[in-house]
Amino acid sequence: MSFITSAALAETGYVVLPPHGDPIDPAEWHDLKYVGWRSSGVTRFAPLASYAGDIECNGFWNHTPPRTDKDGVWIESQTAKAPTLTRLAQEPGANVGRCRVIELQPNTYADAVYNLHQDDNNRLNDDGTGWVVRAWVNLTDDPDSLLILREDRFDPATEIRFPLAAGTRMIVDTQRFWHAVWHNGEAPRYSLITSLTSGPELDAYITAQGGDPHAASIELDQQLVEEAQTEMHRRIEERRRLFEAQGIVMEPPVDLY
Question: Could you list the residue range(s) of the whole structural domain that residue 174 is in?
Answer without folding.
Answer: 7-245
